[in-house]
Amino acid sequence: MEIAVQGGFNFSNVKWKGVKTSPKLGLNLGARASFNFEEDLVMEGDLLSLQGGLFFSQKGYRKGGSYHLRINYIDLPIHAKYSFDLNEEIKFFVFLGPYFAFGINHKSVDKENKVTYKYKWKEKYYRRFDLGPNIGIGARYDQFELSLGYQRGLISISPNSPIFNRTLGISLTYLLPYQED
Question: What is the pLDDT of the chain when averaged over all its residues?
Fold first, then answer.
């Protein structure tokens, strides 16, 4: 088992038919645990593991030059991760699995009309739940990992229009020293 803390940046946007939007920068911060499978399931030196985590994740989009939306979520990703040696010091990995997201709050800013809206949560504007596939790649050196992941929302975040989250995240992970008994 491995326990890790992770932080990085999200470049999020939405798919909204007929509406041009652009990415919004946000944070992703949290922790995860990995459970390794027996070594005889994969080739020697390779590792197959199951990961679960809990993250604070900022997503959203920009529309035009004056409007932007940020939604803060608690993300729960569950991944299968396959790692293999690139050389003696660096391991390369790929991961795939679903993510489940729970909206905490959202904020929209309309600079043109000089209006800011902050909500704990209003279901009439945005749905609280999001889920979809998450896929990514990365590299590990010693106790550090650098990863790039992509989330594709499958549930519309709006009850009024088909608007779907799309998030590209880059993260740095520190694997905490941990020894099993």
Answer: 91
What's the whole-model pTM score?
Answer: 0.89
Domain containing residue 45: CATH number: 2.40.160.20
**Domain housing 16:** 2-62+70-103+128-176
CA–centroid distance for 160 within its chain: 25
Three-state SS at 4: strand
**Residue 80 domain flag:** yes
Highest mean pLDDT among 33-37, 97-101, 112-116: 97-101
Q: Would 181 be classed as within a structural domain?
A: no
- Residue 96 structure tokens: 């795939």
Give me 89's structure tokens.
């010091």
Radius of gyration, CA atoms only, the chain:
18
Could you give the number of structural domains in the chain?
Answer: 1
Across 67-104, b (16+ Cβ under 10 Å) vs e yields bbbbbbbebbbebebebeeeeeeebebebebebebebe
Q: Is residue 55 part of a domain?
A: yes
